Amino acid sequence: MHKAIPDLKDQYEKGKMTRREFLRYASLLGMSLGAAQALIAGCAPPATEVPPTEVPPTPTTAPAVPTPTTVPAGPRRGGTLRVRGNIGRIDHPARFSWVANSNPARHVAEYLTLTDENNITHPYLLDSWEASDDLLTWTLNLRQGIKWNNGDDFVADDVVFTMEEWLDEEVGSSTLGLMSYLTEENIEKVNDHTITLHLDSPQIAVPEHLFHYPNQIMNYRTFEGDFIQAPVGTGPYTLDEYSEGERVVLKARADYWQTGADGQPLPYLDEMVYIDLGEEVSAWIAAFQGGEIDAISEPEATVFLALQDDPNANIMGTPTGQTRVLRMRVDKEPWTDNNVRMALKLCQDHEKILAMAHFGEGAPGADFHVAPVHPAYCERPIPPYDPDRARSLLEKAGYADGLTVEIAVASDWTDVVSYAEILKQDAAPAGFDIQINTMPVSAYWDLWTEVDLGVTPWTHRPLGTMVLSLAYTCDDEGEPVPWNETRWCDDEFTSLLTQAEGTLDVEERRQIMCQLEEIQYERGSIGIPYWQGIWMIAHKKVQNWKGHPTQYDLFNELWLEEA
Known about the structure:
This protein is α+β, with helices and mostly antiparallel strands. The chain has 17 helices and 20 strands. The longest helix has 18 residues.
């Protein structure tokens, strides 16, 4: 048992953390979920002692959607699951910048760990892990007996090779920023099934970082930079067809390493097909209602509203840290001036934007990238809409006659377009003339880190510190990490973030998060209009259907009531 676990148990018993948080941190420290549950059995903390911020606000309706499903006595085998999805261009998985690209691929290539719908991280390709007392050394024990779909053995060389790809600056993976505490030289292969990571700074969330969606493990013998050209993975399916913008066909393996809850080999399905139905959401709805597809990956709020009363729809809803980020390049005029950045943020009416752009399905943001669902969230007031103060700040920055700016948005994301239109209208009294530049989603992803002003969707992460590391830090030379789209760097912020990442005590970490949130609001580079409630939607014949806050398609154990 890690020496910190008794302290965590003590915090739990004193009401300083929730049961779920105890299980989460005990699991991250290498304790099995069953052992962690047994350790606190019968010692629930007094509800009155749980800090209010440990119980995050819930989107208005998302989790309350009924999910009436009649589950057969046991899984049925066979059949094809048809899924609506965006089929984008894929080459190196480590460069994924969009969850949609990872979803078809995750059924072929897998991860070392898996963070489930309850925010608990489990071993996956790993059998277990252990952390040193100071959180500076992590030992990863690989599961043995796993075969790649070409017959090769899964071994430590595959993991070392893949991690080195993540940390190679020329590859350009976002993991380079997320795992900045690790260098290629500090990855030690102990033997064919054991790896030791020697970190530059303490880090509690290593297992969660291993489930970051670009972190799919590659076969070191076959991977040369393009997964479509050599789709060798350890997953339950093989890649039979990949047509960008059209469809993906996945065929079940007969020799997959996992078994289901019934003890039988996975997967239960014969085949999965992802179908790209284009940008028109009405086409997704019609295809579902017409029986042409069985599930909708990453549905928008309009899809939920259209199908929430459909008797054939099984809808799983969840509150998340998913959001739309108003991002400003601090190395480009006029956004170099914090007065201008703050002026634009003050032009947001957060409650109005949530109500009109996302139909009220979520929670208002407060212009820092930590959500109420995140552990150790520090509650702050929602900033008021204040065009008068915004105009004063523009005048202070030298724009007494107003300022014309262009904002880039993807036309596919209807709530993003609505957000931009509302912002344009509400910023006019402050002196902003906002020109909206709409483009296809593929075009936006081609230049999302390059535009001066834009709105970028960011998906949920289980920890607030994860997205802060990914998007708002720089390396030791002062260069922005790959996903730092705003180029914002702040030494005090980075120092506090490193401290937070190695702090286990919930209340101590919360105090650090309060400082991080304050800094990002007062001198940061973003606005956060709202946090989204999200849904996963499937036909009621799809069995064992579960939601996931990051909208990951985890379909290994699905089956069809009618094969």
